[in-house]
Amino acid sequence: MRTHHLSLAIIITGLLLSLGLSAAPRLTVAVVVDGMRQETLDQLRPYWQQGGLRTLSEEAYQTTVRFPHIVYGGSECVATLMTGTTPSDHGIAADTWFRRSDRTPHPILEDTEVHGIGCELQRSPRNLLAATIGDELRVRYGQRAQIYSLGLDANTSILMAGHAADGCCWLDGQSAEWVSSSYYGDTLPQALIEWNAGTRRQELLLRTWTPRIDIDLYSAPTEQERKKGFSYTSEQLLRTPIANTMVIESALALQKQTHLGEDNIPDLLCLNLTTRSPQATSDQLCSAEQEDMYLWLNQDLGYLIDRLAQTVGIQNLRVVVMGRPLLGQNTEALSAARMPAQYFNIDRAAALTGTYLMALYGTERWVDGGYGQSIYLNRTLIEQKHMSLPQLQQQVAAFLMDFEGVAAAFPFIEAVGSVALANTVNKRGFGDVVFTLQPHWMLMANEKQQLDHVADTNPVVPVLIWSGAYQSFPTGITSATQIKSLLIGN
Question: Which residues contact 394 (CB under 8 A, 6 or more apart)?
């Protein structure tokens, strides 16, 4: 009987392979790279004679995908990639949300029921409403599947980890140590405890990041870089290639200690890296230091792929590298093209809306505040006055339409049905009146603080899927919501 079952399994596996598919790889490595753009990969490809990006460009399935919702350059992108749903379903509309009770913004993953391990951040995935690929692995395989997430950003690391990960850690920019949340356990994984106390961490922190090639050989050095080059120490750790190296080497130490990918149960390792350099003001390539980030990323990814292929077997490994829009377009380039970026001051809009409602209904605080692309009305006062909330929402929406830069404004319930906003809005992330901005308009909280660097409402990001087991993947992948189904396979 056992021989019969074994033969049947071999036949099924052969059929899957003949279709360009296979059983789930033993180890999938999902990598989200902040700021990585397809046009930059294309531009720099001739520089990569070898390395991870060279391997991926030659051997990986490659596509570009759009996010079917408004992108603020934050957590919503990661949540969409990992859950296969949009903010209207997964609940993560941006990095922050406006809490009416104290009329202030709060981190979207803030959780006062947990505490930080090695840090003071209180974060958990409880506000993520949809299941990630890691969560589905846990349901399918129970504790036999191992799921870990390491990264440079707390929100990104947690959203990649999902609800059910064995461990989720991120690098603290001040201490340069791995930290975590008590949601995932009382301590860090042992490999990361050892890393924090080890000599390799100290060696990397003593590095000074300078150009790895002659400055004139870069494709887009600034005038300042041509004169003085660039030089950074660990004080700006999270925006240097040293941080990426720390993530890669720590991930390999974790794999060695936990034996990820060394049995027949699929495991998941999630990593968050960056191409954002200290002086970067957009995701577009416009400096030598940004280009140098890509050169180091190529080296680090190559090291990761080579080491894991040796450890778990090339046929058992899948690597998925995904871009995440972070800073958007280059505002200087827009200005040079006579399309200068304009700034919409949400605080001023909220104040003017409050003044407008006072003129109509009396001197009361009718507006709790403005945040993101929403105006939050004082619902408590409206209820006390026995007034119609829908009526006030309609009046405010009509009032906002007279503001320069506003493309459309809706009461929240109408925004849910709007084609432009249907996938974007959810009740946690938006207020009573929602508005959209015209192209190249960006949000500001005041005259000096810019909240939203992204000028594109539908940016394109690259996705590269490399597998040692097979090369054929479905064609026609166009939406970020489709990537989840490719992360683990069949």
Answer: 411
Q: Can you spell out the DSSP letters for 389-451?
A: HHHHHHHHHHHHTTSTTEEEEEEHHHHHH-TTTTTT--TTT--SEEEEE-TTEEEESSSS-B-
**Do 121 and 157 touch, CB atoms closer than 8 A?**
no
The residue assigned the tokens 């594109």 is 456
Range 22-35 average pLDDT: 87
Q: Which amino acid would we find at residue 390? A: P
State the distance between the two ends of the chain, measured CA to CA, in whole angstroms: 25
Q: What is the pLDDT of residues 396-452, one digit of tens each?
A: 999 999 999 999 999 999 988 887 788 888 888 889 999 988 877 877 755 544 444
d(CA 303, CA 22): 25
According to CATH, where is 3.30.1360.150 located in the chain?
A: 342-444
The CATH fold of domain 19-328+456-488: Alkaline Phosphatase, subunit A (3.40.720)
**Which residue intervals of the chain bear CATH 3.40.720.10?**
19-328+456-488
Beta-bridged to residue 110, according to DSSP, are 123
Q: What are phi and psi of 113, to 5 degrees?
A: -85, -5
Q: What are 426-435's pLDDT values in tens digits?
A: 888 889 999 9
Phi-psi domain of 213 (left: phi exceeds 0; alpha: psi -120 through 50; beta: other): beta
**CA neighbours closer than 13 Å in the CB half-sphere of residue 225:** 23
CATH number of 342-444: 3.30.1360.150
DSSP, collapsed to helix, strand or coil, labels residue 41 as helix
pTM of the model: 0.90
Q: How many CB atoms lie within 10 A of CB 422?
A: 14
| Burial per residue of 332-347, b for 16 or more beta-carbon CB atoms within 10 angstroms, e otherwise | eebeeeeeebbbbbbe
Contact 213, 141 (CB under 8 A): no
Q: Are 425 and 412 in contact (CB under 8 A)?
A: yes
Residues 6+ apart with CB under 8 A from 449: none
Pair type for strands 267-274 and 27-34: parallel
Site of tokens 């929602």: 434
